[in-house]
């Protein structure tokens, strides 16, 4: 490999990146948009659960149950009716998520010391919201009953269980999302852009000109990638600064570990991008393949939905998805302050993927067709 | 052969000749649908629990047993309290139940790894219910409507469809027109006696047919492999999807009139579609959790309305008049986008 050739090629790449109308904008707009907008949206917390009540009792207790539900943090009453049909209609219209049906003589039976049971029906279309909403409703109901019994002077079993929320005591979903969002930045900058760049040279024919020069293929590929690694690190730093200044989040653990992971992951993505570019003839092909892969990377890596919720076979599949390891490292460093020595598996996995894709990229690049 | 038929034939040849792209176009939706349809789920159903117990009596044994047999938990065994914290920090477990005893009986404490708040909230709720036990006296009987097995794959099929159509249809159309611009063949077409409207329709019809093919495959897979319930509402699903495909193609046309190179067409599509559709359409993240301003922004994301309509039609199987609002918005968007695109196209 010749260093002089490499520097010359790097200068060429830098000039063409600077001249491109879109790329410099992307470098600044992307991290800002990602870090500022997505955290506002990306929350799976179950809030605003609409409860349609069918009150067949009309007693003091049933009214208290309804008003307690309406005043709780996560639940809201969308309507009180006397027939199941009305409540079902609210579910069908998408207003309510859960139906609470209080049977007749509820209060009477309850004060007699029996255990009358209300019926809770959850809309299963959104499975998470339905089940959690139903559970919250049941909890609120139980709480009202306890208070009611206590006021009547009856002994209640206060089997309260204390709960400690470690590492994220305020239960803020943003603290969980923000460290992982950096992965989106790197996927786009280090995966998408070099691929487009290489295929672009293929389509415009300038790659042919490059192929007849004595430039080695490793030198050529490196000259394509080094600028994007640098851009990737800049973008990641901007992302980290935004996380710090706007959300007050910074790595509890080692910052060097943060950069090491970012660098390794940019190697992985760029190696993969070059591999796709080498195998595609047109921009459209490479983009479709990259899109599909990026979708899989984003949705299967545990970024938005928990890996533990996936079926077993899919959990094994995620072992082959590099961003999974990067996200694990980021979350461990940011939230739990895990020492690097306990994250060696993840770093080694990233290193392994980087090597694999590099070899693939170097081997699949042909100077002649 | 009329001029229009000739144009159609030319486009069809373009598409069919590029076998590789066509294979990719059909292959990607199948893979995404099957993968996400089966794998993506937001429900918390496998909480890893460890128990750190200082006492061993009947009550703690009963609690351990209840946690062990509960399908929502993956019981990882008993640990010593000193070791438990380390396991939590390493991420080897999601929650630890501490059992201590004092004069009044057994006291329990739940310590959860709250870094993922969704898992933390759900597991606390489950654990509290399981530890306090005695289900006979629970205040309510809980049951589920519409999706009794609570499979979230149902919930994701509409989202995946909304994503696939807008990505593939819009990108295919815009790239095909822009590449003619790049090659200069568009100028040839424009100076020929063909009317601009015929050129546009000649471009759109083949891609519409291709997209309908994708729709057929997706529906076939959803109703067979993914096991969505089949009913008469499938006809509503089809025509609403056709409206959405038309809208996606019109958006592709609009993009092609704005940009000049394939590269920018693809970049614009990527920026316009991928992240906003993923984030703002309600596909994964509920819209009512968003701040008001973003809820307004999400109203201009076509996928939001399509996904909402598909959820009602495919999963709840409601009759068509329940989706009137969504369909009117989609039709309105289609007419608007197509109108602007044709106007911009012919004005050159």
State the order of secondary-structure elements of chain B, H for helix, E for strand: HHEHEHEEHEHHHHHHHH
Q: How would you characterize the largest beta sheet of chain A?
A: 4 strands, mixed
The number of helical runs of chain A is 14
Q: Which spans of chain B of ≥5 residues are poorly predicted at pLDDT below 50?
A: none
Determine the structural class of chain B based on helices, strands and strand pairing: alpha/beta
Give the oligomeric state.
Answer: heterodimer
Number of DSSP strand runs of chain B:
5
What does this structure look like?
The complex is a heterodimer of chains A (369) and B (348). Chain A has helices at 3-19, 23-41, 60-70, 84-92, 106-111, 127-151, 173-204, 206-211, 217-247, 255-279, 283-300, 312-318, 322-336, 344-364, and strands at 49-55, 75-81, 98-102, 118-123, 162-166. Chain A is of the alpha/beta class. In chain A, strands 2-1-3-4 form a four-stranded mixed β-sheet, with helices on both faces. In chain A, helix 3 packs across helix 6, helix 7 (173-204) runs antiparallel to helix 11 (283-300) and helix 13 (322-336) packs antiparallel against helix 14. Chain A is elongated. The two termini of chain A are 23 Å apart. In chain B, strand 3 (95-102) and strand 4 (105-113) form a beta hairpin. In chain B, strands 2-1-3-4 form a four-stranded mixed β-sheet, with helices on both faces. With 348 residues, chain B is α/β, with parallel strands linked by helices. In chain B, helix 1 packs across helix 8 (196-223). Chain B contains 13 helices and five strands. Helices cover 66% and strands 11% of the residues of chain B. Chain B is elongated and about 95 Å long. Chains A and B meet through helix 2, helix 4, strand 4, helix 6 and strand 5 of A and helix 2, strand 4, helix 5, strand 5 and helix 6 of B. Strand 5 of chain A pairs parallel with strand 4 of chain B.
